[in-house]
Amino acid sequence: VRAEISYVMIKPDGVQRGLVGEIISRFERKGFQLKGLKLFQCTKDIAEEHYKDLASKPFFPALVEYILSGPVVCMVWEGEGVVKSARKLIGATNPLESEPGTIRGDFAVKVGRNVVHGSDSVENGERETALWFGKDGVVAWEPTIKPWLVE
Ligand code: DAT
Ligand code: MG
Predict the structure, then answer these.
(1) Closest Cα to atom 5 of ligand 1
(2) Complex ipTM above 0.95?
(3) Is residue 16 within 8 Å of residue 73, measured between CB atoms?
(4) 69 burial class (0-12, 13-18, 19+ CB within 10 angstroms)?
(5) What whole-number distance in Å separates Cα of residue 109 and Cα of residue 138?
(6) Under a CB-based contact definition with an 8 Å cutoff, are residues 23 and 10 in contact?
(7) Where would one find the signal peptide in this protein (predicted)?
(8) So what's the pLDDT on residue 31?
(9) Which residues have C-beta within 8 Å of that of residue 19, sequence separation ≥ 6?
């Protein structure tokens, strides 16, 4: 069985605000494994495909414009239960409802500037990783400390 992965992305506001290190740090400290990482200026096609389930929403054009407004940091994090856990680390979609201690709870106030994305299902973790990294983007490696993180 393939290990579970989540596609996590620091949105343009997170990059502009200098939160890249802080956000990566939270996933590292938790004990997930970084399998892909890049700074990337995305295209309209990718942004629209990524958010295609929201295409009929009134905020969709603004959402796509926001994602295109500057570079994003694309990441793939791996580990048992990483999809659900990453969503918890990230916090609720509306940052005014996100718990303190979550990324959005600590660093955001507006749904349209909520700093970070995380896949909402294992299936979307795979789909979004393929979309943003393609076939060769993800690095196969195992950290030497892994036995100290998982049995
Ligand atoms: P999440 O990013 O928590 O998975 P989502 O998938 O429902 O949330 O929506 C994707 C993004 O779209 C979200 O991070 C911010 C934007 N968005 C969602 N609901 C919105 C709304 N009501 N108004 C404006 N932007 C919204
Ligand atoms: Mg979502």
Answers:
(1) 93
(2) yes
(3) no
(4) middle
(5) 32
(6) yes
(7) none
(8) 97
(9) 10, 107, 115
Q: Which of 60, 63, 66 to mutate to test the pocket of ligand 1 (most atoms within 8 A of CB)?
A: 63
| Phi, psi (degrees; rounded to nearest 5) at 19 | -100, 5
With a Cβ cut-off of 6 Å, ligand 1 is lined by 54, 59, 63, 93, 111-112, 114, 117, 120
Phi then psi dihedrals of residue 107, to 5 deg: -130, 5
DSSP per position, 2-31? PPPEEEEEE-HHHHHTT-HHHHHHHHHHHT
Dihedral (CA of 141, 23, 30, 1) sign: negative
CA nearest neighbour of 93 among 63, 68, 122, 133: 63
| The pLDDT value given to residue 135 | 80
| Phi, psi angle pair for 138, to nearest 5° | -95, 135
Which ligand is the nearest neighbour of the Cα of 124?
2
Mean pLDDT to the nearest integer, 23-34: 98
Is 59 annotated to bind a ligand? Reply is yes
Q: CB within 8 A of 54, min separation 6: which ones?
A: 60, 63
- Supply the residues annotated as catalytic: 117
